[in-house]
Amino acid sequence: MELFLLILGLLTLIAVSNVLSRIVPAVPVPLFQIALGALLALLPIGIELELEPELFFVLFVAPLLFNDGRRTPRDELWKLRGWILLLAVGLVFVTVFIGGYGIHWMLPSIPLSAAFALAAILSPTDAVAVGALSGRIKLPKGILHLLEGEALMNDASGLVAFKFAVAATVTGAFSLLNASWSFVVIALGGVLVGIVLSLAFIALRSFLRRLGIEDATMHMLIQILTPFVIYIIAEEIGVSGVLGVVAGGIFHAIAKDRLEPYATKLQIVSSSTWSVILFILNGLVFLILGLQIPHVTEIIWEDPKFDNAQAIGYVLIITFALYVLRFLWVYLFSTLEGIGTKKIRFKSAVLTTLSGVRGAVTLAGAFSIPLVLDDGSAFPERDLIIFLSAGVILVTLLTASIALPLISRKSDPGEEEDAHLSENEAQIRILEMAVRSLKDEINDDNRGVIMAVLGDYGQKLRQIRSNPGYKEHRAWKSAVRDKWMLAIRTEREEAARLLERGEISNETASRFDLILERTEAILANRGQAMVQSFRMASRRIWRIMSRSKERRWTEADISELRELRAKTSKAAVIKLQAAISNEDDKRACSAVIQHYQEGIRRASERLSPVEKSEEFQRDKREWERRAIQMEREALQTLYANGEVTLGMMNGLRFFISTMEAAVSEEDMQ
Fold this sequence. Notes:
Blueprint: H1 2-23, H2 29-42, H3 53-71, H4 74-79, H5 81-106, H6 112-122, H7 127-134, H8 141-171, H9 176-210, H10 216-236, H11 241-259, H12 264-302, H13 308-336, H14 342-354, H15 360-367, H16 382-407, H17 413-419, H18 423-440, H19 447-465, H20 474-500, H21 506-524, H22 526-546, H23 555-578, H24 583-604, H25 609-612, H26 614-640, H27 646-667
Helix pairs in contact: 1-2, 1-12, 2-12, 3-10, 3-11, 3-12, 3-15, 5-6, 5-8, 5-13, 6-8, 7-8, 8-9, 8-11, 9-10, 9-11, 10-11, 10-12, 12-16, 13-14, 13-16, 14-16, 15-16, 18-19, 18-26, 19-26, 20-21, 20-23, 20-24, 21-22, 21-27, 23-24, 26-27
């Protein structure tokens, strides 16, 4: 039961991390997940999750790398094969050699063979971490494909070097010739096993299809089991399971293109299923990483042999040395090949260097270090090695998250400005994206309702496309808000006057006041809008619990409210026209008057019998609320893609809020 509750808690934290990432898009999801995992480990409830490296590799690394192999562009991998080998093999062994001697020189308490093991496990970049960061950071495609290819291949070279270094530490014996030959056998054997087993699985699925067994669920189950079987069999026969699942993923992608072009339904199911699996596995990887960090840190923190500041200094020095070595390696070979100008080579080398993020594979490898040597003594400085590994992971993740977004921008300010949409263009894009999302939802049952909502969006798009650029100024937004508040006060005064004269009922006046109150809250403050929504929901819940029946509005009641809306709108327009004293007032008032004139038009327009029905209007208001949420999702997408800046977000949120205010006025009618 405890394990189930822990898994349930981790899945909940994955959802929380994605919500936090939406609220603070500038921070990558992995950092939130590591922080939440660490926080969970620090809670006084005794949560401990012992990391079993073999289980971690087969449960997380195998399916994630298999999927990366399926998705990575094969043509790009082939074009960059030279560079990928330089980084995934050449740089790994150079890092092991130079890093091993450097770590042993800096920390003599770590034997040379153990220092080689630490350098080996720090040498490979992490495909999961690179993929998580690439979604938030705009890297050039060539560099991104290079990083993906490197991360797919360097796990094998790094882990093989690590195993030999650990074996040398444990046994005290090492042969360079045997190690080199073993590396070739392990690497090529892993690739061969991956291809052969992938071919067997594809043949099995083809055989089942020829028998008429087209059950997408069963075929999907076989596909999910594939990476686990490949990894386990490859490791059991002594070859690289990592390269096996990578080769299997690439081979499956080729087979999908050539052997299964007609399996459209299966491909759709496969895409949906893998997206859920990867979403969960990616989140669990970084949460587990966060769960391990407090325990790892506590051991070094409480050990009197180590000075805490000195231990942190070792982490920073090792990370800096890894960056320097990676930069020199990339810049040297780009210079030898004469790629681009000196400035382009330098910037590309910096981006490639900072993108070399270490991840959970590094920590899992460090935890796989045995506790004792063959002679029964403790493995030298095992806790320190694990601490240094965890520290390098955190520093590289933080550095990439902070520095890459800044450096990856175009150096020419004019080009960078052109890369972003103007606020007016962003408004149009948001509405267009909402329109596309609405069109995707159309079916035979809701076609009429959604077409009515799309008609309103078409009108709004025509208005915005004719708007001048002054709407992008902050002062203009403040002026619009002030004028809108003035108009609402005028509407409230007009409604009170009509109630006093007996032209409207108390029920109509009360309902109309709620409409104005909610509109004020939306325009004034998002928090106030949430409070108001909570109050309204509480009232509905109370009515349900107390079983008090809400008075059903008749068509006459609705007509009275629409007439009141038209009268107060006209009064607001007159007040706004009188409030114009200069050009700025005219611009702000014109925007609000446009809204009220649209409301007057809607109140007076003739609807078909179907559109007049209460069910149609209720469904339309529901789709209008969904469309507002689609606009918010579109805004987040534009920001994540780098098409709008952080400074533009408040203005665009205000734009969406004004549309929500207009919807809320109808929502209660």
